[in-house]
Every structure is written in C-alpha cells, then in structure tokens.
Amino acid sequence: MKMRTYLVVLLLLGILSAPALAATGGCSAPTVYVTHISAGDTIPAETAALLNLRFAQTLQEANPGVRVSSAAEISELLRDEQERIAAGTDDGTIGQKIGAEYMAALSVRQVGSRYVVTSSLSDSDLFIVVARASAEATSEEGPGAAVAEQAAGLGDLVTLIRAHEKAYPVPPRGPSLSVTINPTSVTAEDIRDTTTMTARVTNCAGDPVPGTKVFFESNPPRGWVRGDGESEDPGWSGWQYAVTGADGIARATFRLDPSKGTGAGKTTVSIGTDGRGRKDATARVEIPITGVILEAFPAAPEIPPEGQTDITVSLFEVAPDLTRRPLADRSLYVEKHRLSDGVRVIPAGRTDSRGNPYTDANGEVLLKFIAGKKEGTERIRILFQDVGTGYGDAVETWVEIRVKKDEYAGTVNWKESGKMAYEFSFQSMHDSIAYDYSFSFTGRTTKEKSTGKELTDASYDFYDSYDLFISGYTYYESSPTSEYCEIVPFEEEWQVDSSIHGRVSGYPTINRVMKEKFSSFEIPVTPYPILLPATGTHSYDLAVTYFVHGTPHKGTASGTFSAAGTPSVGGRRPMTSIRMESLPLLSSDDPDKGIIKLLMRQGGGIDEKMSTLRDTKITGLMVQTGKNVYERSWSTRDVGSYHDTLFTFFGSDASMDLDQSFRRSVTLRVVKL
Q1: Which helix (H) or strand (E) holds 60?
Q2: Crossing angle (nearest 10°) for helices 71-87 and 2-17
Q3: I need a labelling partner for 540 at 20 to 30 A (CA). Which of 250, 365, 425, 605 fits?
Q4: Using CA atoms, how far apart are residues 55 and 598, in angstroms rounded to an integer?
Q5: Residue 246: exposed, middle, or buried by beta-carbon count in 10 A (0-12, 13-18, 19+)?
C-alpha cells in the first residue's frame, strides 16, 4: 500500500501541474510518454518503478512546455477509473487515453559498483531518435542521482521538438483541415457532373503542411471519388488519397453517379488526414446536387386508330432550392422499336443528322404522334443520353398513349304496365272488360364516333290478358235451312292471354340511335329505330250462349295463334299496340279469319278506351353526370276513371264505368367506352 500511495502522490502532482504547461505558437503542449524502464536483473522491480517515476517527474519539472505521462500513470488512472465505476462516481474523464507524439525511454544497468543510465527521446510516429543522454553513478551515490541528470542531458525538449518538426513536418501536430469545392454543385449532365474538392492541411501553428496525405471517402452515397490512388494506410484502407503540395493543398475529384439517381439533393464526402500521436483531423464536405428532370405529356392520352396527338417533352434542371432552369439545345433520343406497325412519331422542331430532336429555348420538344390501325397501348421511351455512360445511365421518361376506337355505348331501359276495368249498360245490353298488361324493353347500342356505325342488341317482353263479357239480343237461326230468324238474348265471354318476345343482336344502323349534339347526346325513342321480330302466342277461350224460348244453347271455342310482325318501341303512348300488331293477317278463306277479326276489334277497342291516359312529354338532351357519362330518365304514373249515367235518344238511360291506371319508367344512358 505504501508503494501505491507514493505512486498516486506523484501522479497527482503531475496532474495538478498539467494546466500550467505552456503552449507556444498556437499549439498545445506536445505529449511525451515515458515507457517502461529497462533495468538489469540486479535492480529490484520496485526500485526500477521508482526510478522510472523519478525520471518522468524530473523530465516534467525541467520542461514545463511539454506534457509528460508514463505507463505507470496510465495504469494507475485506469485502476482508479475502475474503482470509480464500481462505486458509481465515474465522471468519464480520468481514463481517457493520452495520445503521445513522443516517447522517452530510460535504461539502467549495474556494472560492478557502478550504474550506467541512458535515455532517449523518439518520434512515436516516425520512430526517429530526436535526442540521447547518458550518465553514470557509483554505488554510494545510487542510480537516482544519474536518473535526475537525464532531464538536463536530453536538453530543452520544446526546442528539440520544434526543430525536429520543422525538419519532419509530416505527420503534423494538431492538424486542421479546410475543404472547398469548385464548382459549388454538380448535376448528372456529363459536362457538369464533377467537382474538385480542395483540402488544405495546416499544423497547430497554422502553417501549411506539404507532403502529407489527405484521405477521401471513395464511395459516398451519390457518386465516387478519385484522387492519386487507393490508400493502403491502416485506418484509411480503401479510401482515395492525395498528397499535399508546398501550399498544403491536396485535391480529389467527386463525380456524380447517375445510376444512384439524377434528382436534386446533396451528398456528403468524409475527409481525413493523419496527425502526430494518432490525433487525426477529419472534415465533411457537403456537395449540392442539381437534378436533371425529363418530362413528357401527351395532349390526348387516348386517341382512335390512325388518330394523332401532340406530345410535349420538357428537359430542365432543379436546384436544391427547387428553382427550375430549362436546358436548351440538348439532343433527345426517341426510342421507337417498341411501337406497333404504322405508328409514327415526328419531331416538330430542329433535329440532328439522325433525326433526334433538339430542345428549344424553353427546354422543350414538340412531337407529333400518329397512331396506326392497331388498338392497344403504345409506350414511348424518351432519353437524354448526355449523362453517365449514355444509354445505360440516361435520364428517361415514358409516355403512354391508348389507341382505341372512339366508341360510345347507349342503353335504354323501359318498363311499363297498365290496367283497365270497363262496364257499359244500356237497356238489355251489357259489356264489361277487365284488362292488364306489362312490357319491358332493354337496348344497348355501341357507336363508333368516327364512322357513325352502330350495332344494337335489344330485347323486349310483353304480356297481357283480358276478360270480355257481352250480353244483349241478337239474331238467331234455328237451323241453317230455316228461313226464319228470331231475336233472342245471348251472352258472349272471352278470355285472351298473350305472351310475346322480341330480340335482335348486332342490329346495324348508321348514326340513327345515338346523336351527339352540343357535347351531349340524345336517343330518339319515338320510335326506337330498331325493328324487333315478334315471337310468342295469343291464347283464347270463347263461350257464346243463346237463350231460345228460355232454353240456353251454348257453344265454345279455344285456340292458340303464333305471334308475328315486327313491332317497334313506341313513344309516349302505352304499349298495347304491340299485342295488336303482332296478330297475323290471314287469307279471306281461312277458317279462323272471323275469330281473328274479333280479336283485332277487341284490341282496337282497348286501345281507344285507354287513350285517355297520358305520358309526360320527353324533351331535352341527356345531361352529363360523370366523366364521359350522360344520363336522362323519367317516369310517369297516371290513373283515370269515369262513372256517369247517360241519356240516350231511345228514352232510356245508359251507364258507363271506367277505371284505368298506367305506369312507365324509362332510363337513357350513354357512356364512352
């Protein structure tokens, strides 16, 4: 414990004296590290350690302009730091490494009754001996006296070190690095993609340091650096280096790598240089990057086959502060090998010998794109190749133009239904009809705008039924050979059901269904210009009863007829005419001719009786409701009734009751495909 206490006291004396050390010429005091003593076998280890500390102490006392440290000092400091860490009182400063620019070595040997003591001061970086000293002592004097003489024997360390560093300026003590770049920014364009980094190295006195290496980071994030070569120095392995000249300046070139991006931004390059005692200097230089941008926009991104549109191409640069500057008189390459047959891209301005367009004063190129006959998406690649390795690193942009027939699809959805209850009484006559129907229609027409050609798919379904009752008096023949006819009461009942359908596919028209007017559309549904063949049936059941002298004579009949004809969609009136118009016309000698005439007569009567119902009038064009979407719809609901007693010229009253209703909903829509 006594030995360690003595050592700590010596160390504390050294530490307390450190702030008083002089610094000259703007330089901090150089550090001299006293290595472990070299002592003979006859000198005890404890004595050798005390001699080494005595040498360090006297060396410090004789040279206040330097900082002297020893291996024992560092060892004790580290032990003390460990104890502080264990106690939780460490302040993080005691155990810092002491980087020494110079080493002092002490050797003590016993030769008989005499002690031979030698010492030296060496450059710890260059391994050059700066000064030597030696002394002898007798056994009575002891080695301590000789050790005390060594500080004076080595001479004035500040003067020695100053002369040595003048003769050997590399590596410098306390170096500083200052870095500039010229030009002050780079861009991906070949003629402006590099900048020169100028690094100036000075020592602690502010003097330029010639012949020292400056190391530059080889591969910063956005490019690469080239100097005099690749470093093999420990700690800087793989970096580029350059050697300073007489002015302390070294230079290296930064080149922007377009494959890592051509946009605006910045990159940082790390730079360093060696210092004495491994006290290196480092710096970072920030290099602004001006981006090169190529943009292209078609006037119309979709055109029909053999149609055309303009493409505006812009080449400009964007500075880190986001200001833009057009790049004029630059050649662009328009890649065409991906285009379909018949497609042409024609520059509107100045071109080179290969037909490549030049940008104008606004940095723009105007291209005329003419589509071929083929539908599809055409992709055009445009390149600015004066970048990096040309085609591989080129700044590029893509333009997509959809070549498609300018087509529209118009749809009609039509639904309606109606009901009627009719009764008429006059004297012994009585008629009643119960009638209802439903109708639905859908149509879809595609139209190619350039030719007006239209193709329509359409279908409809029609259903109706009516029950007819008639009673009164009529002529009756008792037999075909009888010449006598009498008037007898009768009753006649009809039940008729119709189910009719129509359908067409790809029905051609030329600019008849959809009409574009003033940027909108109309579909003339009065009538819809498509003829729809009718298919379906009319089924009927008939019963007639004659009352002859109070005795009923009843006859029945039933049958089914096929629907025929080509009805078209009507306009504003109910759709009852479809059933009537679909009845076939028979020859005069057809046995069913009379029955069909009666069916047609009854149908005509229904049409007349329902004509009191009205639909709203359709006016105006379809209204745009979305991008390339036009719509119009309407619906109507109507009811009517008539109940009255009529005075006739026969002197009797007649009564008529009529109740009817009608409903319709229609939607029209046009969409650009």
Answers
A1: helix 45-62
A2: 100
A3: 425
A4: 145
A5: exposed
pLDDT at 22 over 70: no
Q: Tell me if 412 sits within 8 A of 525, measured CB to CB.
A: yes
Q: How many whole angstroms separate alpha carbon 272 and alpha carbon 216?
A: 7
For residues 575 and 378, the model is more confident at: 378
Q: What's the whole-model pTM score? A: 0.59
Over residues 241-283, the pLDDT tens digits come to 999 999 999 999 999 999 898 999 999 999 999 999 888 999 9
C-beta pairs of 548-554 under 8 Å, 24+ apart in sequence: 548/476, 548/478, 548/486, 548/488
What pLDDT sits at residue 98? Answer: 55
Q: Is the alpha carbon torsion for 167, 169, 174, 179 positive or negative?
A: positive
What is the C-alpha separation between 238 and 255, in angstroms, rounded?
A: 17
**CA distances to 39, 513, 515 from 623, in Å:** 109, 17, 13
DSSP 39: E
User: Whole-angstrom Cα distance, residue 435 to residue 437?
Assistant: 7
| Collapsed DSSP state (helix, strand, coil) of residue 451 | coil
φ, ψ of residue 87 in degrees (nearest 5): -85, -10
Beta carbons within 8 Å of 375's beta carbon, 6+ residues apart: 305, 403, 404, 405
Alpha carbon distances (Å) from 635 to 414, 437, 619: 10, 17, 13
Give backbone dihedrals phi and psi of 573, rounded to 5 degrees, phi first.
-90, 160
DSSP conformation letters of 239-254: -EEEE--TTSEEEEEE
- The CB-side HSE value for 647 (13 A sphere, CA atoms) comes to 1
For the chain, the first-to-last Cα distance in angstroms comes to 99
Report how far Cα 210 is from the mean position of its chain's Cα atoms.
53
Q: How far is it, in rounded angstroms, from Cα 467 to Cα 540?
A: 10
- Mind listing the pLDDT tens digit for each residue in 586-644? 667 766 666 677 677 666 677 777 877 888 777 788 999 998 899 999 899 999 888 88
**pLDDT for residue 402:** 93
Q: If you write DSSP's letter for every residue of 498-509 in order, what string do you get?
A: EEEEEEEEEEEE
Length of the chain: 673
Q: Which pair of structure tokens corresponds to residue 390?
A: 């040309």
Alpha-carbon torsion angle 467, 473, 474, 475, nearest 10: 150
Helices (H), 168-227: none
Contact 289, 185 (CB under 8 A): yes
The one-letter amino acid at 425:
S
The answer for residues whose C-beta is within 8 angstroms of residue 589's C-beta and 6 or more apart is none
Token couple for 401: 């133009």
Mutual orientation of helices 45-62 and 71-87 as an angle, nearest 10°?
A: 100
Place of tokens 């010639």: 210
Is the Cβ–Cβ distance between 119 and 150 less than 8 Å?
A: yes
d(CA 98, CA 95): 9
- Cis peptide leading into residue 320 (ω within 30°): no
